[in-house]
C-alpha cells in the first residue's frame, strides 16, 4: 500500500466539514485522517462516529497557544479548514502554526461561490486569510464549490418539499435567468479528496461544481418531476441592493451588527450569483480558477434532478439548518 497522505480537518462537525470527512473516508486514496475539535465538541455524536470510522480526534484551541497547534500539526501533509464565518480570523494563527510544522498544503475555509473582491464582505474576509497564508509562503489550495443544490429546493403547493426548503434561501434572486454552478453538499468532500492530492492544484484556486443551470430551469424541473406548479418567489435586484445598503448602515451600530452581518452575507450572495452572474465556469476562469470538470472529467456528482427525485420519493434527508 502507498504511503498515506496525512490530512487534518478543522471544523468537522459543520456541514462542509462533515462532507469533507465523508469524502476523505470514502476515497480510494490512502488518507490518514485526523480532525481537530474544540473541547466543547468532544462528546458530540458525530465526533464519536468519526472515531468509530478510524479518524483520530485531537482537542485543540485555534486561538492558541500557537506552539500547541504546531505540535498537533507536526507530521501532517494537508490541513483542510472548514471553520465557520465568524471564526475566520483564527485561521491566520492556524496557518502560522502550519508553516512552522512543515505542512505541505493548507486549504483555507472557502467553499463558497467564486467572485471578485468588493462584491461580498464574506468573500473579502476569506481573501484576506488567503493573503495571510501567501505572505507566510505556505503552500495552499483554495476550493470553491458554487451554490449548494440542497439550498435551491422550490416549495410546492402541496408542501411535499417543505422540510427541504431552507429558511433565508427560498427566494429566487433577480429574474431567475442567470446561470449558476451548483453542487450537492455531500459531493463537496468527494471533490476535495481529488483536489488535495493533485500537484496541478498546488497554489491554485479550484472551482468545483456539478452542473450549471438557471433558477427558472430549476423551478421548471421541480414542476415537471412533481406534477405540480412549483412556487416562484422572485426577489428583484433593486430589493437586494436596498437590503445591502440598509445592512451596511446597521453594521456600523454595535447592537445591530450581528443581524446586519447575516443580512449582508445572504443578500451579497444573491447579488453575486443571482444578479451579477459570478458563479459560472466562465466567470471563475476570469477570476483565476482552475475548472474541476476539466481536471477530472470522469468524476460525477449528484445532479439536481437526482436530488429532487429523491426528495419526492422520500429517499432524501434534509441538510443541517444554516449557521454562520
TrEMBL record:
| The NmrA-like domain, residue ranges | 5-247
- A Pfam family annotated for this chain is NmrA
Q: Which InterPro entries match?
A: NAD(P)-bd_dom_sf, NmrA-like, NmrA-type/Isoflavone_red_sf
Protein name (record): Isoflavone reductase
Biological source species: Truncatella angustata
Amino acid at each position: 500500500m502507498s504511503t498515506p497522505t496525512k490530512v487534518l480537518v478543522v471544523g468537522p462537525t459543520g456541514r462542509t466539514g462533515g462532507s469533507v470527512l465523508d469524502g476523505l473516508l470514502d476515497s480510494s486514496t490512502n488518507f490518514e485522517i485526523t480532525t481537530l475539535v474544540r473541547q466543547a465538541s468532544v462528546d458530540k455524536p458525530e465526533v464519536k462516529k468519526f472515531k468509530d470510522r478510524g479518524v483520530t480526534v485531537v482537542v485543540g484551541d485555534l486561538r492558541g497557544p500557537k506552539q500547541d497547534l504546531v505540535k498537533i500539526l507536526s507530521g501532517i501533509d494537508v490541513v483542510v479548514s472548514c471553520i465557520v464565518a465568524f471564526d475566520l480570523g483564527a485561521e491566520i494563527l492556524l496557518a502560522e502554526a502550519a508553516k512552522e510544522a512543515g505542512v505541505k498544503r493548507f486549504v483555507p475555509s472557502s467553499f463558497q461561490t467564486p467572485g471578485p473582491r468588493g462584491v461580498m464582505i464574506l468573500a473579502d474576509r476569506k481573501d484576506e486569510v488567503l493573503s495571510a497564508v501567501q505572505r507566510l509562503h505556505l503552500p495552499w489550495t483554495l476550493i470553491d464549490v458554487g451554490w449548494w443544490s440542497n439550498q435551491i429546493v422550490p416549495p410546492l403547493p402541496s408542501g411535499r418539499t417543505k422540510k427541504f426548503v431552507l429558511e433565508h434561501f427560498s427566494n429566487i434572486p433577480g429574474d431567475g435567468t442567470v446561470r449558476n454552478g451548483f453542487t450537492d453538499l455531500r459531493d463537496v468532500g468527494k471533490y476535495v479528496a481529488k483536489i488535495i492530492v493533485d500537484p496541478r492544484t498546488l497554489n491554485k484556486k479550484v472551482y468545483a461544481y456539478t452542473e450549471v443551470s438557471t433558477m427558472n430551469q430549476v423551478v421548471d424541473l421541480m414542476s415537471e418531476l412533481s406534477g405540480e406548479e412549483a412556487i416562484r418567489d422572485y426577489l428583484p435586484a433593486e430589493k437586494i441592493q436596498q437590503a445591502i445598503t440598509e445592512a451596511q448602515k446597521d453594521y456600523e451600530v454595535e447592537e445591530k451588527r450581528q443581524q446586519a452581518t447575516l443580512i449582508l452575507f445572504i443578500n451579497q450572495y444573491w447579488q453575486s450569483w443571482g444578479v451579477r452572474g459570478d458563479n459560472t465556469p466562465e466567470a471563475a476562469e476570469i477570476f483565476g480558477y482552475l475548472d474541476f470538470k476539466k481536471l477530472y472529467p470522469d468524476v460525477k456528482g449528484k445532479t439536481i434532478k437526482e436530488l429532487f427525485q429523491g426528495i419526492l420519493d422520500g429517499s432524501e434527508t434534509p441538510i443541517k439548518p444554516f449557521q454562520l
